[in-house]
Task: structure prediction
Amino acid sequence: MLGRIIAQKRREVEELRVGLDIDKVSELKRSKHPRNFNHTPNRVAVIAELKKASPIKGQLCADYNLPDMALSYAENGAAVISVLTDKEFFQGSPDFLPEIRTLVQLPLLRKDFIIDELQLYESLLLGADLVLLIAAVHNYPRLLDLTVKCRELGMEPLLEVHDREEVKKALDLPVGMIGVNNRNLKDFTVDIKTSLKLAEYIPDNIGRVSESGIRSAADMRLLGEHGYQAALIGEALVTSPNPGMKLRELVNYDQG
Ligand SMILES: O=C(O)c1ccccc1NCC(=O)[C@H](O)[C@H](O)COP(=O)(O)O
Result:
């Protein structure tokens, strides 16, 4: 699956090479004020994901309305909104980012499979404040190029890892946030224990984000006990009959 996704991204980068208006980038870089993710100490914030579909499970929510969902995330305590911009596998769209940016004041994470600097320029033009970079997809020199470029453009990289080797790689990069993905990218099983196990290898001065498979207040409390500052949550929210109420339950995880 990951191979198919990356092959699709290569095709999209070729389209960007022809269509992206690079001249707009330096202009925007000067004028744009990024929205920062400021987390409260000793609390696990929620990065709420706009996730219409997954490549494994297909469509997650039939009556999914993107603007309503974004507004309900903002009203119910999300710290950041994660916007899936991949069309082919997640039924997202790059157009979602500017649309959501006009609706809410929260920082926006561009969630896609970034393989080229051109996608970083595009992310800036679309209005992203944070960008996901996946350690499993790149060797160290390439990750270094991408994280440095991301920062030069005024966006915050969220460096995603899956195991201890990738944590080591991430710690040699100029990143302030590491995202531990609980989803195994080989067999797509999800286990929150991945975050719990890897927490001790991430120093306190680096923000810890746990990604995938987080469903309950009990999960949030476990992440808090392991020093996580944020949880990236998609499916549990979009499949809930009341995503706003579900989000509030997760945000107020210690008030049960
Ligand atoms: O969500 C998937 O099925 C998936 C498959 C292949 C690669 C990545 C995938 N998900 C990306 C994500 O990291 C999640 O959307 C995100 O962490 C939220 O996870 P969840 O709360 O489990 O929806």
Remarks:
- The beta strands are 45-50, 53-54, 58-59, 80-84, 108-111, 130-134, 156-161, 177-181, 207-211, 230-233.
- The chain has a mean pLDDT of 94.
- The chain has one domain: 1-12+37-252.
